[in-house]
Amino acid sequence: MGKAYLSLGSNIDAERKLRSAFAALRERFGALVASNVYRFPAVGLDGPDFLNAAAVIDSDLDPFALNDWLHALEDAHGRDRSGPRFGDRPLDIDIVFYDDLVMSGPGHLQLPRDELRHAFVLRPLAEIAPAFRDPRTGRSLAELWSASPEREVACALAFDPAVPPGHAGEG
Q: What is the average per-residue pLDDT within 117-126?
């Protein structure tokens, strides 16, 4: 069993896709810690804003099997891998950390993920796991967020995934 720190994002039917992804994660892994969902400008492509969030799960799968399971979840939500690597996405879920593992490959599996440097990954993770330490730098997520050059990237709270659509308290 390992603790996995996940980054979730979508810019196609984003709220519905993210709510569905959180539900699937809860169904498969049980209780999880979920960040709020934030709206960020697209990075690396010209496209609509993304909604981004983070989750921490206790996984009974090793990082390779978890990555495969997450890819199947993305595919079930309409992810098309035949186009450019960076493009609009109905659902994107990456393992940013798996315990304190540091590894690269096979494929695009890299722990920790280099995307951690981006606000759309770091901001939600620092919200839910501020004391977690990046095994490469030894710095906590709160410290990394505090020192981030992207700290001023415009983002807006989109919604709390724990609040059902249409209920009071949703942002």
A: 94
